[in-house]
Specification:
1728 residues; alpha+beta
Length: 1728
């Protein structure tokens, strides 16, 4: 069957070509074939209407030069040139090589090569290649062009001293025109016989039928073998079109010189051969070129001179003078200055026009053919500072005859961008005869696409993410009409800009240095630079450092050991933003030495700069280390300066570690004493306090000379006298005379510096005190410990060292241990022991793919930064000193997001720890402590106790049973109340008067005091928030309210986790592999009290959810939700939208997570009550998106959320609060439980066709695959509705499932409830459900459908409306919308002048579609009404209908007044705006946010308060307005149409971005507006004439009198009118079966004829343009044997437009008619 169809098409196309090639009628052209089996194949003859004088003669391909009188010149004769320019008329996939031969009768043969290369990506120009022959003597020449697969092109030329350019196209060229035309290079000689005939057709048809690609048969060059190639062959067969030579003057014939200035680039020789341009530098302010022809016998005749456009526009000529010296002695001059003509200073007053082009080209119109002796071009100004000029080419044109207009591509023009904050609006001129536009947006190497039917579009997202301010986005636009594309416009830049000053910088951190401060902060959005302010603590004035471009600055020249306060601001073009939080730190002193202990000191000082006692030698080893400023160290590697009591000399190691973390031979300081000592401690100091030594490694040489390691050495930072020092100690004494000391910095500091080292004798006091305890937690005394033992140790602790007079350096810590021993001895016991739960660990959650979880277990202690703590760790199976799988986590209370925590590894037993400083903010520093288990063994038993800090209340009900939970909550609430009451006193006692510098001196603030803390741990959540705010939230509710809220929190989390497919309940036989990947988290999420960064109300970070002070009480307000056994809501409430939103961020499945969209699924889940009103998005917006036909996401994140919610509604059959017992039940009951399961384990996903699930395509592709797997259906239609495009992998995976036939993108909550109530039914599936539907069109592009259902209305969800267009005889469908009402208004202005058949399908509550019902076709009337999408409307009137929305708990931001003026442009004629302006005349301003062509305004008012006198103004910029009409509204049928006019009262069309309507003289008067509509020009149109079908009564000559352009008598004719451009339009008739209406020629093939008649052209007109009402005639001649009886019953006309009148490229349907009945008996028709 396919072979028969192919051959039938071949016959149609071949017959058409014979008809086309048989005549030379003006404007004859065939219709370009598209890949359609019934493509139109008619010839077309066109002449201007009533312009038939003169004959259409065969054109001489070598026209003679015009005879022009001129005086004799020089003696030379001008040589000729021939240039062959080949243009690709079809795609070029691979280079095509042509041989170009020019053979002269005298000069012989010359050969050149020309190669067509594939077009560069993004270019709009067709590929071109050329060959040039110069220096040709006068005479006859034969041109021959040949190439692979092409029929050789030949042409005779008579060369006589001119330049002859031959343009050849590889696609179809215009034929039958009396104007200049290119020649045709015909491709398709498949059998190599040198011609195109039936043999080639046979080979091509066989290749198409075989279905195998052959490059030689790909005539269209698009990489596909199909009917397009057959169309190309049949249309070019026998069509040997010869080119009309374009005549000019050879450039190299001129005597050329640069008479002023110099050549910067290019050479004269290349320029004259047309191989390159010239870049000229001026001399004396000008550059001048001379072209002298005076040496020739006859001066060359010119009609126009063209200066080509420069490659760089800034090199274009903007000012200069052109002087023409004519052969008869005349001189004319004109100025180049923005196109303005200046009167020539010439004796004969000859004049000519200079027309600069937008691209920098210049056209010099000589107003006729003139013999020219000399041309001088003087350039005085260009577009660049150096005044460099680029002359890319100069062409002297001899003949300008042509009537074919430039190609109309409908490429969008005047593309403009209006940027705003994180958004921009793109606008462009409306293009006629297009149905849509495509935007291409490129940024940072990535590309996004959008489609719209409007001439503007607001862009807020790029590839699904929000736009970023100050980022460049390149935007291009192209027009679309079906498969046709215009090609993209030039790109325009879009850079969103902030609409306000920058936010306050976050995370300002200050670190003191030597007389300096290092200040760092977070990079902020919308910030160009930063200002830094600082001042000395206690002073008033801040110093300012402005214009910092990075996020770091070092302030130098400060005082020693002085605290400074610092803040930072951001700046942009709108000004300076608010200040950051104030941060502070002290500078480091280089003048104050550290105060090292002298307790039991061995190397006592002998004075500053002198070697201390007992030091025999000291050396340093390793690389990148040196001794600095030490007079004692003359020898290499000597390090005596570290033992000289001089802090100016020091060891400097340019690395973070010096044998502490990574020990080794030679790493560190090796010191030798003059004798052996029992050593127990080393202290050391830095020259300045930089960094933090965290690693120490000590070796010693034993009595046998062997090196041994001190295994239990520890290092801790101490502070004394305002300076830090470090203490290294170990338990047992080391007797030695030789030590190696290695230390290392904590990560983040780049070098090690040590200025002084002291070595101390061993003292057993510390060991003996610690040995009082029998366990690692120090909770039990050893046997034999009595009061005497404790008293003895107390006496020793209170006794100073007799040599130095100092007490033990750890006296305070040891005193705490003695006090603990005394308490235990008195049987008081010690509290604060925390049993570590080994189930709470990340190791157990590795398989479930849930983010945001933490394993931190609260210790109930808040500690200040810099505070010395002792943390005791016990484990019954481990020895003291062993490394544990526990980490101590420090946090900052009320921290910024990036400065929350730091951790350190713990060991069994006693851990001495200094709390690190995590913040520089000028508030109390420190916060709660946590321990986290990093192992995975449920049998691990760790306990932890903290000595130090301040205890606060903790509630832990993790996995507690009901009774235990209740008792713990009761006790906690009691403790919380007591604790909060004493907070202020506790602050005064522990902080204000304490010794810790980082909290000392701050007044009590409940928001910043680190004591105002509590932790609450539930099964799935930990709340780390201010204690006082929890108590405030509880109010009078107490323990009962807290119990309810915590139960609600865990309930909500359990609901969320079930929708992720997670549970701890499995069937008994469930494999371990399934349990490991689908269990509930062992860890929990953490909601914390945090500082908000700029613009945040809440946020989700990697390990916490941050909330502010005011949001904490809401955490105590949850109420458990009660529902029936089906999950139907009864009572209770979970938490606000925001909390669930942030939780969603944390637990989102990363394989398809879409920020700000998929996380909101959980917010809806927590609040939806199975009603349409309880979801956040609006279903009408959802239905609008899924029927829009647009690709990409919905513009609103809530609308986009509807896609995910609909999947839940379509496939889940329990009510929203339904939870399930086992994992197997969850998998059966919840759609997203299956989705997330397959995401966690792709091997578990179904593959019924053997195609396995892969998650490698990004979130959209992953979602489409996962959703189809979860539904067990191919969801291609659903996702297409939502604008998602599957790739090949996705199509392959989805395609193995049965296709989802239901229209699930129309489901809503109410429909699902209906189904669950009534059970699933087939409903209207495939049945008739629409009794009737009537369509009516108004003149504004609106079509209204009135639907009468035949099915029960209560079972119907709504109606799907589909538009059906007929193109090329085939139907094209697009969804118009979905309505729940029985009426539907289609805003179809874009389809103006097209016939639309509306198809209506009822959709029932089960999402089944009914049988289709078709309404009677209707033609959309193209009044030119402008679509209102993207408009902004404002007014100075106020109305009683203006509203201020109430703020809500979930939308707490203050609302602004919203004007009701939007009713004036809402397209709804049932709504009316009524308002009053008190201070001035009322006005309404319409802003399009783009340029539009406007020609009329329609004012509608259905109230009795219409506007009277009016003034209408337009503006391009919103500032300067021009009046286009004034008068008084006279309403007819409640509306008035006002056309815009110019100053001469002629109706005009204006380009405008704004239209302003003012009610003149009506200040204080009530004015009503129902609707405002604007109109512009409409597109092409075709209609049948009344009685336009019949039999011609007499011959009709439509062109000339030669008898070749006649419609014969008795021809069957069809005629009508059209609106369009006759150079680009063609009409085709179709019958009811979609076939072309035609006759049969002598060979039995289908044929038809047509002409399009244009109105008469005036003599001065050179181009055909658009006509408002022309005539078309379509006929069959008597010889074609068409019988009246064989005519179809009805016919319809289609009007097409093409882009290029030469090649027929870009053909698309622009208008059609409804079917017209063909008379049973044809009447006689006469044409006059």
């Amino acid at each position: 069957m396919r072979r028969q169809t192919t051959r039938f098409l071949a016959g149609i196309l071949a017959s058409v070509v014979l008809i086309v090639s048989g005549g030379e009628t003006a404007y004859a052209r065939g219709v370009q074939e598209r890949v359609k089996p019934s493509a139109p194949a008619v010839s077309q003859d066109r002449v201007p209407e009533e312009r038939t004088s003169g004959e259409a003669q065969e054109q001489d391909v070598s026209p003679a030069r015009p005879e022009t009188k001129q005086p004799a010149g020089g003696a030379d004769v001008m040589a000729g040139t021939v240039e062959v320019l080949i243009t690709a008329g079809v795609p070029v996939e691979k280079p095509q090589e042509f041989q170009v031969e020019l053979r002269g009768a005298v000069s012989g043969s010359e050969n050149k090569k020309a190669v067509l290369e594939p077009a560069a990506e993004g270019t709009l120009r067709a590929p071109q290649a050329s060959a040039r022959f110069s220096g040709l003597e006068a005479g006859a020449y034969e041109l021959r062009v040949s190439g692979g697969g092409y029929v050789a092109y030949t042409q005779s030329l008579a060369v006589d001293g001119l330049a002859y350019r031959i343009q050849l196209y590889t696609g179809e060229a215009a034929v039958g025109t009396d104007a200049a035309r290119p020649g045709l290079l015909a491709r398709g000689d498949l059998n190599g016989d040198g011609k195109l005939d039936g043999g080639d057709t046979e080979l091509l048809v066989n290749a198409i039928d075989a279905g195998q690609y052959r490059e030689d048969c790909d005539l269209y060059g698009d990489g596909v073998l199909d009917l397009r190639d057959l169309n190309y062959l049949t249309r070019t067969m026998g069509n040997s079109v010869r080119a009309t030579p374009e005549l000019g003057i050879p450039l190299e014939a001129a005597g050329f010189q640069v008479s002023s200035g110099s050549i910067r680039s290019g050479t004269q020789e290349q320029f004259l051969r047309g191989e390159s341009g010239l870049i000229l530098a001026p001399s004396g302010g000008a550059a001048e070129l001379e072209f002298d022809f005076s040496r020739y016998q006859k001066a060359p005749v010119m009609e126009e001179i063209r200066i080509g456009a420069p490659q760089k526009k800034e090199y274009a000529v903007t000012e200069g003078v052109v002087v023409i010296e004519t052969a008869d002695g005349g001189v004319a001059a004109a100025s180049i200055r923005s196109g303005a003509f200046l009167s020539p200073a010439a004796a004969k007053e000859e004049r000519f026009d200079i027309v600069p082009g937008k691209d920098g080209s210049v056209r010099i119109d000589l107003k006729g053919q003139i013999a020219v002796k000399k041309v001088t071009i003087r350039i005085t100004k260009t577009g660049n500072a150096d005044n460099l000029a680029e002359i890319s080419s100069v062409e002297f044109v001899n003949d300008m005859e042509s009537r074919i207009p430039e190609a109309e591509m409908n490429v969008p023009k005047n593309v403009a961008v209006k940027a705003s904050s994180k958004a921009f609006t793109v606008s462009w001129d409306v293009q006629n005869n297009v149905t849509a536009y495509e935007l291409q947006i490129v940024s940072e190497g990535k590309t996004d696409y959008r489609r719209t039917s409007s001439a503007s579009m607001s862009i807020q997202q790029f590839l699904g993410d929000k736009l970023r301010n100050n980022v460049l986005y390149e935007v291009r636009v192209q027009s679309l009409n079906g498969e046709w594309k215009s090609g993209y416009s030039e790109s325009v830049p879009a850079v969103p800009k902030p609409n306000g000053k920058p936010p306050a910088p976050d995370a300002v951190k200050v670190t003191g240095g030597y007389r300096s401060l290092d200040v760092r902060w977070k990079k902020m959005e919308d910030t160009d630079s930063y200002n830094l302010y600082y001042k000395e603590d206690g002073t008033e004035k801040y110093e300012k450092i402005a214009g910092i471009e990075g996020t770091y600055h070092q302030i130098t020249g400060l005082k020693d050991s002085t605290r400074y306060q610092v803040y930072v601001t951001g700046t942009n073009e709108l000004g300076e933003g608010p200040a950051s939080l104030t941060a502070s730190d002290k500078t480091i002193s280089g003048l104050i030495p550290a105060k090292l202990p002298e307790y039991k000191l061995i190397n006592t000082s002998k004075g500053e700069g002198k070697l201390s006692a007992h030091i025999a030698s000291a050396v340093i080893g390793g690389g990148n280390v040196a001794m600095v400023d030490s007079p004692l160290d003359r020898e290499e590697n000597s390090a005596l300066g570290a033992f000289d009591n001089n802090y100016n000399s020091y060891i400097d190691r340019q690395d973070w570690d010096y044998g502490g973390a990574y020990p080794g031979d030679g790493k560190g300081v090796t010191v030798e004493l003059d004798q052996a000592f029992e050593i127990g401690m080393i202290t050391l100091a830095q020259p300045m306090d930089v960094g933090d030594f965290a690693y120490a490694h000590i070796r010693y040489q034993d009595g046998n000379g062997k090196w041994q390691i001190v295994k239990d050495a520890s290092i801790s930072r101490k502070r004394s006298g305002g300076r830090n020092y470090y203490l290294i100690k170990w338990k047992e004494p080391v007797k030695t005379s030789r030590l190696q000391i290695g230390v290392g910095q904590r990560y983040g500091y780049y070098k090690v510096a040590v200025s002084e080292i002291r070595i101390h004798e061993y003292d057993s006091l510390e060991r003996e005190i610690l040995d009082l305890f029998a366990d690692d937690l120090f909770l039990t005394l050893r046997d034999g410990v009595d009061q005497a033992v404790i008293d003895g140790l107390q006496a020793r602790l209170d006794r100073p060292d007799p040599a130095s007079g100092e007490y033990h350096p750890e006296r305070n810590a040891l005193q705490e241990e003695l006090d603990a021993a005394k308490a235990l001895l008195a049987t008081e016991g010690l509290g604060g022991v925390v049993e570590v739960n080994p189930e709470i660990t990340a190791q157990k959650d590795r398989g479930i793919a849930v983010g945001g979880l933490v394993a931190r277990q609260p210790l109930g202690v808040s500690a200040a930064a810099g505070e010395q703590l002792v943390v005791y760790v016990g484990n019954p199976g481990m020895k003291s000193g062993e490394k544990t799988k526990l980490e101590l986590v420090f946090t900052q209370q009320y921290a910024e997001s990036g400065g929350l925590s730091q951790k350190v590894l713990l060991k069994v037993g006693r851990n001495e720890i200094t709390v690190p400083r995590l913040s520089s903010t000028d508030v109390e520093k420190g916060g709660p402590l946590y321990v986290q288990y990093t192992g995975g063994d449920s049998k691990d038993r760790y306990a932890v106790r903290v000595s130090g800090g301040t205890a606060f209340p903790v509630l832990n009900v993790y996995r507690a049973d009901a009774s235990e939970r209740t008792e713990r909550i009761r006790a906690y609430v009691q403790e919380l109340g007591d604790y909060v009451k004493g907070l202020s006193d506790s602050h005064s006692r522990n902080h204000a008067s304490g010794e810790e510098e980082e909290v000392k001196g701050y007044a009590y603030s409940d928001r910043t005091c680190i004591l105002n803390a509590t932790d609450i741990v539930t099964d799935y959540m930990m709340l780390s928030v201010p204690a006082s705010q929890v108590l405030a939230g509880l109010g009078e509710g107490g323990a009962g309210k807290l119990a309810d809220s915590l139960e609600a929190m865990d309930e909500m989390m359990l609901l969320f986790y079930q929708h992720k497919g997670l549970t701890d309940s499995f069937a008994a036989d469930t494999p371990d592999g399934i349990r490991e990947k689908n269990h509930l988290p062992c860890q929990y999420l953490n909601i914390r009290y945090m500082r908000m960064f700029a613009g945040a109300f809440m946020y989700a970070a990697g390990d916490h959810i941050g909330i502010e002070w005011g949001s904490v009480p809401g955490l105590t307000g949850g109420v458990p939700v009660r529902s029936d056994d089906k999950g139907r809501y009864e009572s209770g409430r979970y938490f606000g939208w925001g909390i669930a939103h942030e939780i969603g961020h944390q637990i989102n499945q990363s394989a398809y997570a879409h920020a700000e969209v998929t996380n909101n699924y959980f917010s809806v889940l927590a609040q939806a009550k199975d009603t349409n009103e309880s979801v956040r998005f609006q279903y009408p917006e959802v239905f609008k998106k899924v029927t829009s036909g647009t690709t990409g996401y919905a513009g609103n994140v809530f609308t986009q959320l509807g896609m995910y919610w609909q999947l839940h509604l379509a496939y889940d059959r329990g009510y929203n609060y339904k939870t399930y017992g086992t994992w197997q039940e969850i998998q059966d009951g919840l759609f997203f439980a299956r989705v997330d399961r397959y995401a966690r384990d792709t091997s578990s996903a179904p593959a019924p066709g053997g195609v396995k699930l892969e998650l490698s395509g990004g979130r959209d592709q992953n979602l489409m695959r996962l959703a189809s797997a979860a539904a067990g259906r191919d969801l291609s239609e659903f996702f297409a509705g939502w604008g998602m495009v599957p790739d090949s992998v996705t199509r392959s995976y989805m395609g193995q499932f049965e296709r989802e036939e239901r229209a699930v993108f129309y489901v809503d909550d109410a429909a699902r409830v209906y189904e669950m109530t009534h059970g699933y039914q087939q409903g209207v599936a495939g049945k008739a459900a629409v009794a009737s539907a009537e369509a009516s069109a108004d003149n504004t592009g609106r079509v209204t459908l009135t639907i009468t259902p035949s099915a029960a209305p209560e079972m119907l969800q709504g109606y799907e409306i589909t538009r059906i267009f007929t193109e090329w005889g085939e139907e094209r469908r697009e969804v118009a919308g979905f309505t729940r009402d029985t009426s539907f208004t289609d805003q179809a202005a874009y389809a103006a002048n097209h016939v639309v058949t509306y198809e209506i399908r009822a959709v029932d509550k089960w999402m089944n579609r009914s049988e289709a019902y078709r309404a009677v076709p209707v033609k959309v009337r193209g009044s030119g009404r402008i679509d209102k999408d993207g408009w902004t409307v404002t007014t100075n009137m106020v109305s009683k209908d203006d509203v201020i929305p109430d703020a809500t708990e979930e939308l707490p931001c203050e609302k602004t007044a919203q004007s009701a003026i939007g009713r004036a442009v809402d397209g709804d004629y049932s709504t009316t705006y009524t308002g009053t302006a008190s201070g001035e005349d009322p006005y309404i301003l319409l802003a399009f946010n783009c340029m539009k062509e406007v020609s009329a305004l329609n004012y509608t008012c259905d109230k009795d308060t219409p506007a009277g006198a009016f003034r209408i103004e337009i503006s391009r910029d919103g500032e300067t307005f021009e009046a286009v009409q004034e008068g008084t509204f006279v309403l007819g049928d409640q509306s008035a149409r006002i056309h815009f006019t110019d100053e001469n009262h002629r109706i005009c069309t204006y380009d405008a971005a704004y239209v302003k309507l003012t009610a003149v003289g009506q200040k204080g008067k009530e004015i009503s507006v129902t609707e405002l509509d604007l109109y512009g020009p409409s597109g092409d149109n075709v209609e049948f004439s009344p009685q336009g079908i019949g039999r011609l009564s007499a011959d009709y000559a439509y062109a000339g009198e030669d008898g070749n352009h006649v419609i014969p008598k008795d021809s069957i004719v069809f005629t009508g009118t059209y609106k369009g451009n006759p150079a680009y339009n063609v009409v085709v008739l179709y019958d009811e079966k979609g076939g072309i209406v035609g006759g049969t020629d002598s060979e039995g093939t289908l044929s038809a004829h047509q002409i399009i008649l244009a109105p008469p052209l005036k003599d001065e007109e050179a181009m055909l343009g658009n006509v408002s009402e022309g005539i078309w005639i379509y006929w069959f001649e008597p010889a074609e044997s068409v019988k009246e009886a064989s005519l179809p019953e009805r016919v319809r006309a289609e009007l097409y437009r093409v882009d290029n009148a030469l090649t027929n490229e870009g053909q698309r349907l622009v208008s059609d008619t409804v079917f017209v009945k063909v008379p049973d008996r044809l009447s006689s028709v006469t044409f006059e």
